[in-house]
Amino acid sequence: ISFAEALQHFQSSGLSQNRRKVRGPGRRGGLAVLLRCLGGPPRLRTQLRGEQELALAMAQCALDDSEQVHMRILQTIYRQLTRSRLGCPRYGTHWEELGFQGRCGVEGLEVPERRRVFHLSCSNAGILVLFQNFPFCIMSVNITRIVIQALREERLCRECNRRQQVIGVLNDLYAAAFLRLFRLWKRRCGTVADAGSFLKELELSTKKKPRQLLRSLEAYVS
User: Fold this and answer.
1) Of all helices (H) and strands (E), which one includes residue 49?
2) What is the pLDDT at residue 104?
3) Least CB-packed of 93, 95, 142, 198 within 10 Å?
4) Contacts 24+ apart (CB under 8 A), 97-102
5) Where is the ELMO domain positioned along the sequence (predicted)?
6) For residue 134, is it within any domain?
7) 210 CB neighbour count, 10 Å cutoff
8) Based on the structure, what is the number of domains in the chain?
């Protein structure tokens, strides 16, 4: 499945129940408004709020074995990352190739918010970290969580407003954070034991310096 087709599926499916779960930031008091006027982050433009809501609703979407599009996304991620021309069984030890733990693959995978997340960034799957015992998909889901949280906390409004899009910024920031992880892992000869501290660094960079991360990605790609 292509990224565009997968995204279109979620756009057309409505996700009404998930959208109701999405709660934006609370109303701000006078001091918060004053600080924003004095140079704080801008608010997301009105015309982008629908796309923001869609992204947050997708983050609430649990993997459904009975949904054909969900299974196609899963198969595509597997084939893109392994360069296999064949699909794979839903369950089995082959998921360990991608950094999942155990034969159940994504079935038992939950992020700290206790919600399974679709990261629709398979178009950025070319940035691979080919080290032994690297927990690729576990780190991927955590990076997705970090990026979604940055959006929820309005840390990405300036960049979204500049580019007039939300999901495109999320995908690029996801790739940029993974590139940052690659460099940290390589420079510090990382192991699985370092994953937690690396994720903390990524979270700080993603929330405090998203534009710097994106520029690093642009330089890398060019």
Assistant:
1) helix 49-58
2) 52
3) 93
4) 98/136, 98/137, 99/134, 99/135, 99/136, 99/137, 99/138, 99/139, 99/140, 100/137, 100/138, 101/135, 101/138
5) 69-210
6) yes
7) 23
8) 1
Amino acid type, 118: F
CA distance 115 to 221: 32
Q: Coil, strand, or helix at residue 18?
A: helix
26 lies in a domain? no
The tokens for 97 are: 């190739």
For residue range 79-136, list pLDDT tens digits in order: 988 888 888 888 888 887 777 765 555 544 443 333 334 444 444 444 444 455 677 8
Domain span at 187: 3-7+44-219
Please say whether the beta carbons of 154 and 36 come within 8 A. no
The burial class, CB within 10 Å (0-12 / 13-18 / 19+), for 217 is buried
**Contact (Cβ atoms closer than 8 angstroms) between residue 49 and residue 167:** no
Residue 7: the pLDDT is 92
pTM of the model: 0.78
- In a domain, residue 15? The reply is no
Split at pLDDT 50, 70, 90, the class of 164 is very high
CA 135 to chain centre: 16
Task: Please report whether residue 154 resides in a domain.
Answer: yes
